Structures are given as structure tokens and as C-alpha cells.
């Protein structure tokens, strides 16, 4: 049996795929809204790369400036002067996560890039199939991640993916594609119509 590839390798591949997709976008699409409230495609890409070169001191300063909970917004503002071409150059120079996004063996970078890749694609009406290996590695990390708030959204529900091997919890069932479960767990209402089961209305209400 082949050995399981590292989170870091999967994060690299996800960022590589994201970069390849971004290279196909028009100037207008770079300014288009995404599933992230008030963030354009350019803003989302700025967020994805905004932690890459921060030292420990720089990270602490970022958190202080954003009073922790607004640190992501501070990072987006720091990259506001970058053009899409400059952001692409920066992303392609950092396909392998560094700094904060390399945390937990690359798990932070993998989750962040995958979710935000979908934030962009769903908003632009350009769906894709996330490779099953990546989904099966990501999904188990989401419910217990305190930064994502998924635990409170899925409490008392049983989630089951219909296209990859993953299930979680107990209670009324929410089932559907792993990508839609990922997006719903991370707070994206746009994914709820792709899910079914007796627990779907409960999850939908929590996302509202």
C-alpha cells in the first residue's frame, strides 16, 4: 500500500491548482465578489498569501493591529496596493506554505487554500471537483477547529459524505458531497442546497 502523502504536499498541490485557475481570470473577475462577505477575488487571494512572510514578531504585530479577530482584514489591507499580477507572482513564489500557514504540517495552508478556492469558484459559477485525497484529509480536521466555528454549527448532527469516505457525529443526518459539507461547516450558506437529509434544515437555520 502506498504511503500517505503529507499535508504539506497536498497544500502545495492545492495552491498550485488555485494559481493555475487564477491565471485564467479576467480583470473584471479579479474584482468580482466571492462567498467571503465584502471580499473580492483579489481580497481573498491577498488573504491567502498575507501570512507567508511574517516572522513571529510580525505575526504578533498583525494580531495586535487587528485585535486578533480582525487580523485577516489587516492582512488584506496590507496587500491592497498589489496588482493581480503582483499577487500571482507572490502566490507562485509561495506555493509551499511558510510561516503560519505551514502550521500542523501544512494543514492550515491546505484548509485555507481549499476553502478559499471554492469561495472564488462558487461565486464565479465555475465549479470543480476537489481531489478526493485532499477532501478526505481536510474533512476530519474541520469540526474540531475552533477558529472555523464548525463545532457549534454541526453539534447534534450526523454528517456523511456521499462521494468520499467520511462521516462525523450523531443525530439527524446531513448528507451530500464532501465539498458542500466542507463549505457548510465553514459557514457558507451557498452550499446548503447541495445537501440533504433530516438534519439539513437544522444546519440551514444555523447558517442563517
Automatic annotation (TrEMBL):
Residues 13-93 form the Mycothiol-dependent maleylpyruvate isomerase metal-binding domain. Keywords: Isomerase, Pyruvate. The keyword Transferase does not apply. GO terms for molecular function: isomerase activity; metal ion binding. The keyword Phosphoprotein does not apply. NCBIfam families: maleylpyruvate isomerase family mycothiol-dependent enzyme. This is DinB family protein. It comes from Mycolicibacterium mucogenicum.
